[in-house]
Write a structure and sequence with these properties.
This protein has 329 residues and is an alpha/beta fold. The protein is built from twelve helices and ten strands. It folds into two domains: 178 residues, Rossmann fold, CATH 3.40.50; 102 residues, Rossmann fold (3-Layer(aba) Sandwich). The strands form two sheets. The protein has a six-stranded mixed sheet with strand order 1-2-10-7-8-9, sandwiched between helices. Strand 7, helix 8 and strand 8 form a beta-alpha-beta unit. Helix 6 packs across helix 8 and helix 11 packs across helix 12.
Amino acid sequence: MPIITSPQDFNVEDLYVDLGAVLGLPLHLKCEGFNFAGSVKLKAAAAMIEAAEREGALTPGSIIVESSSGNLGIALSLIAASKGLRFVCVTDPRCNPASMRVMRALGAEVRVISRQDANGGYLESRIGYVRSLCESGDRYVWLNQYANRNNWVAHHRGTAPAIDRQFPGLEVLFVGAGTTGTLMGCARYFRERARPVTIVAVDAVGSVTFGGMPERRMVPGLGTSSRPELVDEAYIDDVVHVPETDTIRTVHALAARGFLFGGSTGTVVSGAARWLAEKYPGERPVAVAIAPDLGERYLDSIYEESWLVENFGELAAELDLPGADILGV
């Protein structure tokens, strides 16, 4: 029985869903949402804060500030709360309302930046605001998840070895690309050990991370409007870009089988399914995909009929979502 004193001390590392039995895919899904932050971002948040404390950059009077579309902000919120530190999350209108409520419940201050950047996203505008905060006073400490090596080190030390232990014959690994911390940590781990594992990055259509054209993106999580400094394509074997309509179809297909996952997970599973169908038709390679999050924080968006009608009208009709029955009894 685990007994902990800090929320970041607990994480389920060895839970996988066999998608062969669920969706007919030759794929095992590593579930990273079973911790107090509800996502894989808890690992990076803990590693970055520990390094900042160790190096003396983060002290008891500091105010942590970070740009986040939701999951990292929640992870930082709970760690800051456990340490008695203040945290300011700089986000944008695409952040799920549920995520904002969780951060505020944990004592964080949430600031929403609504000015779009040159690529039609919000990332550069968010980072610009973070920089201005840091320039306004020495108490502000920006961890900078987009360039902080401890972001990928957390997965090099934890996530990748855990997968390696469970699947010693691993052939293909699918990892979603946001800041690319999880992706680069896992890719470096297997490449440094000369393991014949094909590393496939899964990104959203409209993201510029791997040279794509910027487009409207409504689902927070994967994808960026500004290329992260952490990304190094020398460690990556292939990239799959997934339209948001496919992301939404996939999460609803999973939910129909009782698995409520988040948008980032839907993107990864959709990309993995397409890649496997093209590269291994009719075969069953040893393949793993990382599921970054669960679905409760997306109930106001990708699982909500009115949101789907507003943003993806034709898809909403295609999904034929069940409505609520109002009974006069």
